[in-house]
Amino acid sequence: MLHVLANRTYRHLFLAQVIALVGTGLLTVALGLLAFELAGAKAGAVLGTALAIKMIAYVGVAPIASAFAERLPRRAMLVALDLMRAGVAILLPFVTEIWQVYALIFVLQSASAAFTPTFQATIPDILPEEKEYTRALSLSRLAYDLESVVSPMLAAALLTVISFHGLFVGTVVGFLASAALVVSVILPSPKASMPRGIYDRTTRGVRIYLATPGLRGLLAINLAVASAGALVIVNTVVYVQAGFGLDQQAMAIALAAFGAGSMAAALAMPSLLEMLSDRTAMLGGAALLAAGTLAAAALPSYGWLLLLWFALGLGYSMAQTPSGRLLRRSSHPGDRPALFAAQFALSHACWLIAYPLAGWAGAALGLPVTAGILALLAVLAIAIALPVWPAEDPDLIEHRHDDLPANHPHLAETRHGRHVHAVVIDDLHAAWPTKG
After folding, report:
1. N or C terminus of the chain with fewer C-beta within 10 Å?
2. Torsions phi, psi for 420 (to 5 deg)
């Protein structure tokens, strides 16, 4: 897996990702503790609202940013967004009111909504071979998981000597270091194949996404991931500190257990995906998430919480890691930034449902009922994914083009008006071919 780091450009981008993630991880821990300081036992509701605002920024900004991304140099755009995030993060230690948390989170996450899809869409251009790209995806997932382990443990260690407000400084350092690493490499910036209007560029990724069966299934799986993930991210602080009466370090360790499970699955994914299809692996991960979320309705002790959070981490990584391969296969290079932005926006629309549900229901109905509701939502998502993403999802599809003239270059190798090739939604294939 590690030999993909021999590519200098990818190595620098990967290190930029890792450093920024550690800073973001410190922000996650500090934000939860800040919410508890400002709202006490109602911290779940405050954090749920803050994360809902984050999702609104993600859903609204990502498609618009992708429409302009193809007009801007990728490196300059990524660096500017890193600097913007650092500037906002440095203000968070001075927050004294809940509304200030909400305002700063919206600005910071709007920058992330532009940064992340652009960053993700760059990787397949740097590593065009699918096997290399699969390893990069697993390595990227591993980076997220290591952040989930390292950041909470680092936060736990730092909290023994500093106030949690000092953790925000680590976020600023992470974003600045990320910007420096991006500056150190030259990034490809593919252009769209033809000029398009702003509306077309803004909506193109979503239109491709919703017209592709595998991606419709991915959207349903995203909802199962968000349901389980929201329970962990929003309510871990409530489970640990309000429920079990433990301290801040215990909360950080619980988040680390979730990250450790996800990391274990990420290490196994390259080998697992040589034996299983993307669909099988992702649906298996979603099923584990649904079962684990239901089990969270009856947690007897902190020790059981750690074991269950580890299992949820396993399912979380299994359900998410193959998604980049699916997105890559479902688009032409020129459409890839728009499609990654669509995945970013639509997946976070699922989190926009799950985050406030986890926070507000947790505060109003209690954690056992909330876990049951989120588990039911995950089961519903799996029930939707099964029929919309058929088990038979061939790479090559025989189809015809009744809308094209017989002498069109795309029909050069047809027989009886039909031909076979790998289909992606584009200007020549506005809808997915049907059987027969």
Report:
1. C
2. -125, 130
